[in-house]
Amino acid sequence: MRRGKRRMIKLKFSKIYSFACGKTSFQRDHSRIGGHGHSRVVVCNEPGSFEGEIFSYADNSVRSTKYTVATFLPKSLFEQFRRVANFYFLVAGILAFTKLTPYTAVSAILPLSIIIGATMVKEGIEDWRRKKQDIEVNNRRAILHKGDGLFEYTEWKNLRVGNIVKIMKDEFFPADLLLLSSSYEDAVCYVETMNLDGETNLKLKQGLEVTSSLHEDFKFHDFRAVIKCEDPNANLYSFVGSMEFGEQKYPLSAHQLLLRDSKLRNTDYVFGAVIFTGHDTKVIQNSTDPPSKRSKIEKKMDKIIYLLFCVLFLIAFVGSVLFGITTKRDLVNGIMKRWYLRPDSSTVFFDPERAYAAAIFHSLTALMLYNFFIPISLYFSIEIVKVLQSIFINRDIRMYYEEANKRALARTSNLNEELGQVDTILSDKTGTLTCNSMEFIKCSVAGVAYGRGVTEVEQALGRSNGSPILNESINRLELKSNEIRDSPDRKEPIEGFNFTDERIMNGNWVHEPHADVIQKFFRLLAVCHTAIPVVDEETGNISYEAESPDEAAFVIAAREVGFKFYKRTQTCLSMYELDPISGNEVERTYKLLNVLEYNSSRKRMSVIVKDERGRIFLLCKGADSVMFERLAENGRKYEEKTLEHVREYADAGLRTLILAYRELDEEEYKEFDDKFSEVKNSVSADRETLMEEVSDKMERNLILLGATAVEDKLQNGVPDCIDKLAQAKIKVWVLTGDKMETAINIGFSCRLLRQGMKQIIIHLEIPEIQALEKAGDKRAIAKASRESVHHQISEGGKLVSASRGTCQQTFALIIDGKSLTYALEDDMKNMFLELASYCASFICCRSSPKQKALVTRLVKSGTGKTTLAIGDGANDVGMLQEADVGIGISGVEGMQAVMSSDIAIAQFRYLERLLLVHGHWCYRRMSSMICYFFYKNITFGFTLFLYEVYASFSGQPGYNDWFLSLYSVFFSSLPVIALGVLDQDVSARYCLKFPILYQEGVQNVLFSWRLILSWMLNGFISATMIFFFCTKAIEPQAFDKEGRTAGRDMMGVTMYTCVVWVVNLQMALAIRYFTLIQHIFIWGSIGFWYLFLLAYGAMPPSMSTNVYKVFIETLAPYPSFWVVTFFVVISTLIPSFSCSVIQMWFFPMYHQTVQWIRYERKKSNPE
User: What is the DSSP letter of 256?
Assistant: First the structure.
């Protein structure tokens, strides 16, 4: 609708407001005010009063930054040196200032400073962005009462508890406010809470009647009040307090609380008193950090670091022992064995008479010398790579949902590689597998089924079963749809309404045998709801803002049948309906007396209304599990038929609700209203429970009208996605609140369940349990239920065990929420998990949010494998946070799931690409990157150890100090970062074509200890070959025509050159997908080494020390250097290359098999 061309009815309400008459009662109130947790006292509109000064409450500024100017340096340094590797390098850098050091202090400190500095800069930039957001929020403007009835603009950060503020339409609330009055006479206002819970529907709030007259600015000149309420807490949906005003006390509830960051909508202005400010506000109290998650690869990497530390300490210990023995033998009985070293005049570090002390000092020197075994830039490089990987995920155009303008969003980059190792997916159904866009498609009224439509589930079952009757029905329906579509006077499709039945539509219902029941049925749909009508003034069309898609579908269905709800005031609902006697459309107005709200425990909602003739009705709609037991004996006339239809609807994958009513007499209603008002206006912890109890007594002896059936269509691509995930051998578990029949048939339609799959159903709908439930013995029910569930799990286990190894029978486990309660008990959960793990599919029906989280925890801890949870609503948050990876669907149920997730996507079908493509790539890249990091550092570090052995463990490095320092920073780090970001073993098309590739990550074949140790062994072999080939090739004979032999400086440069070539070419051999960037980084690193050697060697000897013009004068001019380099590099690469060829030919992995397939296809079809 065009802006300005739609008008919303002035007085409306939502479920948070119930219309109970009567004055405020305090017979049961204040049981908690002043006690523990309820000690807050707010003095309104008296900023300078004594009472206002003695309470020291937080100001209204917020800070989301991790650091301040004063704490940035110490805190960030502490964060960096919490890592064992960084702390080790710090200690080594400090020791570099002593005489123990084998290199200069500057060369030891500089690489660490670069890595730590770069990480701190990254942290600082991220924190500065948060700081700018804080400044923007804190400097927003609000209208504050300055005194004497004058209001002026001030910044949010200046607000204090007790201030009176005026909020205008479409402005955000700057703090948690107590609503005093609004532009409406009855102090109601409409609030959008999208920033809090992501819900787009409007919530209605209403101030107290006693303050509703404060409409004008000047009226606050003499306003004084004292509010006593609960202390700051994170509960968004409750508030307990009282207000002392005019020597009387009035109870306060969440109906009067306006939360910070909510927006005022459809209300010109409101006045409010500041209750909670800054970090005391409920939204900030809720902004706790999500649980810290680390990938399995990262955890394993820590173990490898510790292993390398053990290797480092071992070789340092062995070298020091050998050094001590050799040093002790240098001087025996005054005879100097190695006289040229002058052991008789050596310092304590080489003194034969103090060999033990020399060995200890040598161990410290060795620990500093061998620290190159530990990759100093590993953590920083991994952080860079993960951020870049996340950017690629975010910008993948194939995961962009154009209809909603939403893309994939990696909210954390810590878990990218975990996407490639998922073994089990735990999924919500509604809004995740389905659209959560409900369509009214069928109904049962007075025992008669209405609605000709065929659901997606029925179509899927018809295709899989080959049912000729159903196929004929589907073809007939499609033919009729085509006729309607081709008709010149066809109507546009109506969102939320897909009902076709000539017996009901166009007023034909008046000719039905039970027209009076049909009238009550659709009248109930038009009245029993919390929807808000929106009228287009240009066309007169009415649409509705409803609390849920189901509710919108019901009101639309009533409108289309002829019961048009169009207006709501504070106490009345108005509608047009067809009068069956006159045949004319007449206006009906119902006085709204009470709303008995829906919640997940009640599973129903009711309204109490009075019609124009003064009759009082209770209209109720709810789940069949709670409605049938509330029917009166004379209200069960259509029960049998309705039950039969409900089961049919469930089989068709539809969501059902039961509709019933009862008529109340004045006296009965007055007694209820008095009790309800008393409880509602009380201030006590158990107020909600008491309200439910009072409501429960009234919602009895109902008369059944019928049942509704709405369809929640599957999202596009869901069946194909689940099928592809199944081909990748990823288990998919669905946890839903639907009935078992509905869940099973949805399972078939989305291909989670397949024909030929044996179903193991665990439930408690058995005669023995039902008999005990009628008797009401809770202990006996619990005992029998526990035994029944245990027996069913045992039988299922036997069935699975018997078929194992004999046939290819696949199983599906289906369990209801009641049974799951017992299956998750300590003595049964392992047996339950074992059974579920052997099943290809798992469906849990009627499950609660807590059960979803518990099942996720059980799978994660019980199997030790990676779990992924995916959901779209607030009820999925526990499951998302419990799983190793949480995926939020940015659907129509708000953004709470997204805000609690690790990665957000717009549609379930994008999970296929996220896992099979990005997950596989990220896992392979990260595994290869980390293995290569350890390989290159072991190759470099072990040459130092071999040189030490060669030099009698003298503690002297074989390379120049700056060669040591810059190896990991400049000569070998960039190619590995390019590998981690860009490499692909196979293309995205082949990842999706061969889903079995994904099992490489699930089985962790690319980061197994065998592969890690093989990379390490390759490093040791490469180092050994480089060292011995170089030393044997250039040392014994003259190096040039003048007869000069190679010294330590020449041999060091030659070895270092070979190391740089080998580690970069080894990287080139490991890459499967070359890009220009990778070529630049690999060949650029090698080229940069030669440029550095030229530049550094050209510096004065005081700076270049032992490499002064070594390359330009003594190495580059002579062919022997280039021949040795070429020979050593090729020889060193041959063993690993040969192993790779043998492994690929005879023991190929999944990705290598696919590479062969791709190669053969290209070979046979070059085009």
Answer: G
Helices (H), 44-160: 50-54, 72-81, 84-95, 105-138
State both tokens at 736: 């839903």
Non-local (6+) Cβ contacts of 181 within 8 A are 187, 207, 211, 212, 213, 214, 215, 270, 271
Q: How far apart are the first and last CA of the chain?
A: 52
What does the alpha-carbon distance between residue 854 and residue 856 come to, in Å, rounded to a whole number? Answer: 5
Binding-site annotation: residue ranges for ATP: 428-430, 551, 621, 655, 736-738, 846, 852, 875-876
Quote the CA–CA distance of 370 and 373 in Å, as a whole number.
6
428 is catalytic: yes
State pTM to two decimals. 0.77
C-alpha to C-alpha distance for 815 and 844, rounded to whole angstroms: 5
Residues of each annotated binding site = 428-430, 551, 621, 655, 736-738, 846, 852, 872, 875-876
Structure tokens at 512: 């039905």
* Helix (H), strand (E), coil (C) string for 1104-1142: HHHHCCHHHHHHCCCHHHHHHHHHHHHHHHHHHHHHHHH
Q: What is the DSSP letter of 8?
A: E
pLDDT for 222: 86
How far apart CA 518 and CA 516 sit, in angstroms, is 5
Nearest to 959 by CA among 1054, 1025, 889, 882: 1054
Question: For residue 1098, is pLDDT > 80?
Answer: yes
How far is it, in rounded angstroms, from Cα 407 to Cα 388? 17
Bridge partner residues of 574 (DSSP): 567, 589
3-state SS class at 1147: coil
Binding residues for Mg(2+): 428, 430, 872, 876
Residue range 7-28: average pLDDT?
35
Amino acid making up residue 794 = S
606 with 619: CB under 8 angstroms? Answer: yes
Encode pLDDT of 687-733 as tens digits.
Answer: 677 888 888 889 999 999 999 999 887 888 888 899 899 999 999 99
> Rg (Cα) of the chain, in Å, rounded?
38
Contacts of 637 (CB under 8 A, 6+ apart): 447, 704
Position 32 pLDDT exceeds 70: no
- Residues 905-922: pLDDT tens digits? 989 999 999 999 999 999
| Mean pLDDT to the nearest integer, 225-241 | 85
Half-sphere exposure of 809 (CA within 13 A, CB side): 14
3-state DSSP: the chain helix, strand, coil percent, rounded to 5? 50, 20, 30
Span 291-343, pLDDT tens digits: 667 888 888 888 888 888 888 889 888 888 888 888 777 777 766 676 656 66
How far apart CA 781 and CA 792 sit, in angstroms, is 16
Res 1164 pLDDT > 70 = no
Query: Which residue is listed with tokens 């992995």?
Result: 1149
DSSP class of residue 342 equals -
Which ranges of 210-348 would DSSP assign to H, the alpha helix? 282-285, 296-328
**Dist. CA 978–CA 675, nearest whole Å:** 71
Mean pLDDT of the residues in the chain: 83
- Best CA proximity match to 425, nearest among 855, 930, 88: 855
3-state SS string over 605-648? EEEEEECCCCCEEEEEEECHHHHHHHECHHHCCCHHHHHHHHHH
Task: Identify the CA nearest to 750 among candidates 762, 736, 767.
Answer: 736
How many Å apart are CA 470 and CA 456, to the nearest integer? 12
Q: How far apart are CA 442 and CA 710, in angstroms?
A: 7
Confirm if 608 and 669 have CB atoms less than 8 A apart: yes
Alpha carbon separation from 498 to 441, 481, 711, 1002, 1127 (Å, rounded) = 5, 11, 9, 43, 77
Catalytic residue among 280, 330, 423, 428: 428
Cα–Cα nearest to 1111, from 1039, 1047, 1054, 1028: 1054
